[in-house]
């Protein structure tokens, strides 16, 4: 038996997971997403990361970015290293890709903000 | 003098929502923001988890704020950034609002006000830590500003005091950026932040959480060099002999948020001792006619979705306000509740769909919330658990409860007896 806290939504249900492999049963979840989270957490935990990339814009030295979908928890620091290699010299819009298919994980690193578009307009 | 129906002070999530709804309800609206960009604190809250209630998606802070910024751009709302309100005076039929901006000092006239001024972090001076005054003692929000907006890492090896959500989020953020977070220390015996943040911000990164511990002294001349940590008893008093010294170059404080109501106070708005925000009715009007409050200035929220919700309500009601008279009755709260918002009902208004927010004072399991009017139970709801960090929300039809001018309205929590 394993006890988990669901991180899907702020409700934060206390989950109880019994069994192994294909016969996992989850209790304590208020919705289906909690069950899916518990199963994923037992087999291959996934997380999102949100961070910033450097830019060459003096008034906006960093731009917030995030992964477009969850990545394996054990690749978080590998993806962080890739993101740190980037310096943006051109504006990107919110939702636009900053790194495509990062480390072959089938996930893009995308901009969280239109911040740099405004920099361009004012600059 | 320029004339507006609604003037909104603060361009964060509450003010943005208020501006959109005031415009949608036909008001000539002015939105005032002191910073260069709209969005308030969400600009630096780059983590995700915002908007699950409202949009059913996990958005980051900037993404959430920019959706509202895009909306407000489509309205006729007049937006003034880099503008600061220095004074508001009541005048015939409204308010004279004095503004300072790069254009100089100017006074505008407004029929109503929406105070969306947000909240501030409690600082080191407010938690009485002894010792020197070196650099390296930051609030979590300041550390977040450095990291996420300026791109500067404010610590290499740090201690976090307080388990509020921003502190937990910053523990993860600093770790991702390569800093070492020695631990999160909380004086209370239960965490202040959301349980999911304890898991995804601390457990995921093997950052320890020490409950019933606090920082009792800081050391260092120019820069922080070490802190002294002590265990505390149930009354949060440090226990002599339990001190330990930890080397670090930063102490990050996440010890609570206080609604910002300096302007409100100058206008004679009555504040609640429990929320530190204005006492208001179901339409979010304060004790002063024509002055509305919303978002974290009203009470500190844990979800931005509810900040926007209260902004929308305040903006709409400000737009529709025509100086109607009010009859206030109290909603009394039992001792198990920390507070409820609104604290009053205006019997002259439509109370058929009142959104009520509340928090319990302690962690409670298997309990029952009851609403009684003149001793008669009119509403009840069972909760498997209630936790003070997690605000609860209800929509109630108060118009159906037979409330009269002198009615005794009580919101209470019954806890199941263990025996």
Characteristic terms for this protein:
heterodimer, A: 123 residues, CPE0013-like fold, 2 domains, five-stranded mixed beta sheet, three-stranded antiparallel beta sheet, 29% strand, B: 419 residues, seven-stranded mixed beta sheet, 8 helices
How would you sum up this structure in a few lines?
Chain A is of the alpha+beta class. Chain A has helices at residues 32-43, 76-84, 115-122, and strands spanning 2-5, 14-18, 25-27, 46-47, 50-55, 62-67, 71-72, 87-88, 97-99, 109-111.
Can you offer a commentary on this structure?
The complex is a heterodimer of chains A (123) and B (419). With 123 residues, chain A is an alpha+beta fold. Chain A is built from 3 helices and 10 strands; from the N terminus they run E-E-E-H-E-E-E-E-H-E-E-E-H. A 5-stranded mixed β-sheet of chain A has the order 8-5-6-10-9. In chain A, strands 1-2-3 form a 3-stranded antiparallel β-sheet, with helices on one face. In chain A, strands 4-7 form a two-stranded antiparallel ribbon. The longest helix of chain A has 12 residues, at 32-43. The termini of chain A are far apart. By secondary structure, chain B is an alpha/beta fold. In chain B, 20% of the residues lie in helices and 36% in strands. In chain B, the strands form 7 sheets. In chain B, strands 1, 2, 5, 6, 7, 8 and 20 form a 7-stranded mixed β-sheet that branches. In chain B, helix 1 links the parallel strand 1 and strand 2 (29-32). In chain B, helix 1 packs parallel to helix 8 (304-320) and helix 4 (140-150) packs across helix 5 (165-176). The interface between A and B is medium-sized, with 30 and 30 residues.
